Amino acid sequence: MSKQASEKGTGDWPVITENHWYALAITSAIFTTLAILAAFLWIFFDGFDGETDLKKAQAVAPFGVALFALVTFCTVAWRGSVNVRQANQAEREGRAKLLQEGAKLLGEAANPSHVSAGIATLEILITGPDEKLAIQAMNLVADFVQREMQGSHHHPFREEAFASLSSGASLGRRANRSLTFDCSKSELGGVWFNIDGVKWVSFKGGSIMGGVLGGFEDRENYRYSDCDILMMDINLDSRFTKSKIKHCNIKSIDFMFYMKQYAPTVEGCDFSGAVFDKFNNDYFEMFSGSQNYYSRSMPPTCKLDVAPDWSSFLDVKN
């Protein structure tokens, strides 16, 4: 039997709850009392006869022992269920206190050690068994990130906060938050880093560097506006608005409903093996004359249209 089938079969088994065990304990106790009374009447109803009564008593004794064992078993099982419930309740209350304590520590920005302890406390919940509390803890960390790092990722607790969210994301969890990082009005600009475990992330202004130097990797839930993007593997679509994309590997292109005024500039990028969803004549203007290229052995392809002459707007390299 496969593991999936085994798990499915186990899930179909009846579950005996605390209330069931309590009802069974009471029922078995009443039944045992009635059985003892019936046995007493059966043994002594016709008067006292030592030898006969002894034989009758010996005949019913094993059944009495079994009934007492049943009552004991049901009672112990009921008490065990009560203890488990109380232990689970105490554990939930403990985790709720951890959430409150983590939120309190995270709000003490003037005390760095408290902030670090707050992130560590919330990460315990983020990776814990309680899904609801884990999401609430991730929400608190995401709110901290938005509040403290909206204009710059150069923050002493960025790595800790981002790592705690990533640990939740690795378990399939996600905060109910969308974050916006904006340094478009800053003269100094900024460098953005990957963040996981939230709904959406918008980067406005600043620089993004992939590859060995930066390590930034694109995500489907990322949005870019007025960003300088370097050396990254990109699925080029409407998520990239008015950004400068340079020296990147273009994996796919889908601009079917793209407004021209919001198009990014693409320079010096590698289109080898890139997949165009549908070819648009605007691509000639968008990609030509900007040192974009492809390898002769790996030309781009087009899924829905007849492929154009790629060399008419892209450089060819051997």
Strand arrangement within the widest β-sheet reads 1-2-4-7
For the residues shown, what is the average pLDDT?
A: 85
Low-confidence stretches: 1-10
Rg from alpha-carbon coordinates: 35 Å
> How much strand content do the residues show?
15-25%
The share of residues in helices is 40-55%
Structural class: alpha/beta
Query: What series of H and E elements makes up the topology?
Result: HHHHHHEEEHEEEEEEEEHEEE
Counting H and I runs of at least 4 residues, what is the number of helices?
8
Protein name: Pentapeptide repeat-containing protein
Keywords: Membrane, Transmembrane, Transmembrane helix
Transmembrane segments: 21-45, 57-78
Would you kindly provide a written description of the structure presented here, covering whatever features stand out?
This is Pentapeptide repeat-containing protein. The chain crosses the membrane at residues 21-45, 57-78. Keywords: Membrane, Transmembrane, Transmembrane helix. The model is unreliable at 1-10 (pLDDT under 50). A four-stranded parallel β-sheet has the order 1-2-4-7. Strands 3-5-8-10 form a four-stranded parallel β-sheet. It is built from eight helices and 14 strands. The two termini are 54 Å apart. With 318 residues, the protein is α/β, with parallel strands linked by helices. The radius of gyration is 35 Å and the shape is elongated. Helix 3 (50-106) packs parallel to helix 5 and helix 5 (131-149) runs antiparallel to helix 6 (158-169). It has helices at 3-11, 18-44, 50-106, 112-126, 131-149, 158-169, 211-214, 282-287, and strands at 178-182, 200-204, 207-209, 222-225, 228-230, 233-237, 240-241, 244-246, 249-254, 265-267, 275-276, 293-295, 301-302, 315-317.
